[in-house]
Amino acid sequence: MELKTKVKVSGINNLSDARYCAGMGVHFQGFNLEEGTEGAISPQVFSEISGWLSGVDFVAEFSNATKETIRATIDQLEGLKFIQIRDLNQKIEGLGIFYAINCSPTQDISDIQSQIKALSGKVDYFILESDSEWSKEELIALLNALKDEPVFFGMNIPEEFLADLIERDIFGIGLKGGEEERPGYKNFDDLADILEALELED
Question: Which of 26, 41, 81, 182 has its CB surrounded by the most CB atoms within 10 Å?
Fold first, then answer.
């Protein structure tokens, strides 16, 4: 299956999500490996999940961990291509970088542009994260300002806005995985609605 734009799903912590996303053509699967944070999994669980998949780029996600802690964690992993960090002091040689930036619709867009321009060429991709509600106009303004940058929009994008954003050549979209209701059983409605809207027609 092909999608209309690049997609990264973050916070995957179970095989149901991982296999579903792989089948839907998701390009990047992210796993929170920062011990002690909400939704984190162990290197052992990562290995168990990733061992079932092929043709997927895996991303180890960290927030405030030190470089030493990150290195000790990823030394236990196989098949990893990227890490997601919030500070270049956390980078690990040999791995591509997703750089996470928190943003809000009340923030001056030029501030976000400045952060991205300052890091251009030093990271592979940016992912914008936000807990705020964004209007379509606010999302379009941000997209227009960043249209030439490798940016994944990881804020909550209502499905009804997707078609308009895709037509404007959005680089990528960031989604989130979730908990299984019980082992082996997962309600995929939220992910499915967006991924099906992004599916290319035959």
Answer: 26
